[in-house]
Description:
This protein has 399 residues and is of the alpha/beta class. It has helices spanning 18-23, 25-28, 34-43, 55-65, 98-109, 127-131, 144-157, 185-188, 201-204, 210-227, 273-276, 279-292, 300-308, 321-326, 361-372, 384-391, and strands spanning 45-49, 69-73, 114-118, 136-139, 161-167, 170-176, 237-241, 246-250, 297-298, 314-317, 332-334, 353-356, 378-381. It is elongated, with a radius of gyration of 25 Å.
Amino acid sequence: MSKSILDPARTEGIELSNDEIARYSRHLIMPEVTLEGQKKLKAASILCIGTGGLGSPIALYLAAAGIGRIGLVDFDTVDFSNLQRQILHGTTDVGRKKINSAKDTIKSINPNVQVDLHDCFFTSENAAQIVAPYDIVIDGTDNFPTRYLSNDICVFQKKPNVYGSIFRFDGQCTVFAPHLGGPCYRCLYPEPPPPGMVPSCAEGGVLGVLPGIIGVMQAIEAIKLIVGIGDPLIGRLMTFDALKMSFREFKPRRDPKCPVCGDNPTITELIDYDTFCGIPQAAAAEKELEAEAPIVEITVEELQAKLSSDEKVTLIDVREQFEWDIARITGAKLIPLGDLHSRMSELDSADTIYLQCKSGVRSATAARELQRAGFSKLFNVQGGILAWADRIDPSVPKY
């Protein structure tokens, strides 16, 4: 059995009301928790970075379990596409700030919890101040700069970082805590992947219930660390495959040459994580490419005028088949981006070709690929089918 990360003095003076004893009675009768363990939960504070797919079950279950103080970091607003998995938020919350929606839900579950709201990006400038008051940080984010940032600040402040990630049908969970003998995130992933190499959930999709599994695992790990029970996932990475309904365990080790938690660290303060992850460089390379071979864009209104005219229009949709099955623009032809190279023979370089995808990103990539192959009359549809649904045809589903 592990030891609680809390100083024993933290529970001095902590009492449970009769209402709290009734609320947490199923904890109190467990010999591994008891009244003392519940007092530790009430005395503890946890920072949740993100109130989305992972942050939802994390915050819900921590609040229900009786964590005394929960901090929420998020800057986003609730969108309809969030509701398939982000169970902190409901239909009536669409358009609201996520942290405000989250606080209301948490308070409806457990009014005893103190909820701190951090309505901002989590950055190198504010991370130290935000993290300082909390005992544990739980990373529920989906981008690499924030993952490296949350890792580094936790190493510097000697706070456990409960990590989780999800994609499509797969997820993973571990606890990064070099001060407790385990590795940090950089020990596993010394370098971030090139920008765009790993698609986000918005690009690749995610099974709606998957973050429930991983987020609950993260909440369990935080509770174990606070109460001081069980065997935490320190030095153990748990992966989950929803399609096979199988778990696998790996045992990553701390890297003595790690630049942050190693024996002779070379990174001793927070850095520019966007630059570290190559985001500005990728943007600069994109601009340079555009300067060399500019992609001409067309609005959805202009596209509608073309389609309504007698002019021959070759509209190519470069999304995937399953996206095409959800929504399409009448008159378009489907050639998924991954098939474009092998199917270029279906296109006539003498034609004017309009390229469209979900939002305009993949179609721009397709336009560049066609440019390199000698096509010159190319137009990228700004905003893709989402813009078409917003401004031309509201009957087209958005996803």
